[in-house]
């Protein structure tokens, strides 16, 4: 998100405002708003389907090329590192570059990198293959980060009063990309080999470049006087960022490790692995618009959703393996159900966050540390670590909200006592 673009207008007392309910009547979208929705939806869909096709088969292919589980996690993790660094740099200059140009340029770079990634199987195994994976994956992350950052900046500017509702709608298309990516990628890989998944979807993303040039309206960003780093000094901002950190770490962990675990534990093919990975995005796509509308209408429920989402993620990750200390036998149906629960936890945690920060975060921790833990210990214990991180986030958010509520009650009591001591004349 652009640190220089003006955020939606909010009252200074954010915590007190969240206790009020929105009573603004729904309005019909204008032509500009509709075109913006179409454009951003196409970016969400195209980017996420190209991102998610790797999950079912790339870890297996990388192991064949001499990469260890840790290196596979690093390849997935470098995507988020590059995304983070490029977002901070590009976000500083989005006003000068222009949100529309940055979005289109990001799409073009991401599409080219996806196509190039489809030819990496011809690279020699070992260091050359691994190095090329890091380079192409990092450049892809820069393009993807530029496109999505511009898309969210445009969304926040066009829909300042309905951010959660609109993002809930847009997440349907991001969820569709996540849903179609794994099974489509697994099927194309099984049927046509390594190249076709990347070539076909890269070309699809390339087609969206002229489409967005025509559809997306030109939007001017206004520089802001406030500092992004000043925002990070707020306790609530840090806690919410930690929640996003844990959730995105969990998703990155699953991208890097789930397919190998399912193949080794249940003897599944790459195509079936893609199908079981539908559980997470399918639930996410169904729940996102409802939660977005509900949290826009009842802002006071956002903290409750954050805490509930953290607890749900904890349960989901602990039962995903399942955790060794639970002494429960691993079952395929249980794995699918827990993926669905994790998808629900993402929806009820992530969607309410956007109106609070108007930002999106990804982390390199999940795939990197997840790959290391899986290699040293097991998938089950790595999932427990992700669940523990999610529980810690839910606990911290709950304690913060409890402290804020107590503080407000004390202020109200002091005001009442002051009013009682004030003479009538």
Describe the fold and architecture.
The chain is mainly α. It is 76% helix and 0% strand. The chain is built from 18 helices and no strands. It is globular.
Write the topology of this structure:
Blueprint: H1 14-17, H2 31-52, H3 58-64, H4 69-92, H5 94-97, H6 99-117, H7 127-158, H8 163-192, H9 195-215, H10 228-231, H11 235-266, H12 270-276, H13 279-297, H14 302-320, H15 332-350, H16 353-357, H17 365-376, H18 379-421
Helix pairs in contact: 2-7, 2-8, 2-9, 4-7, 4-11, 4-17, 6-7, 6-9, 8-9, 8-12, 8-13, 11-15, 11-17, 11-18, 13-15, 14-15, 14-18, 17-18
Mean pLDDT: 75
Taking all Cα atoms into account, the compactness measure Rg is 22 Å
Low-confidence stretches: 1-26, 356-362
Order of helices and strands: HHHHHHHHHHHHHHHHHH
Structure classification: mainly alpha
Q: Give the terminus-to-terminus CA distance.
A: 54 Å
Let me know the number of strands: 0
For the largest beta-sheet, the strand count, sense and barrel status come to: none
Question: Given the structure, what is the number of helices?
Answer: 18
Helix content: over 70%
Shape: globular
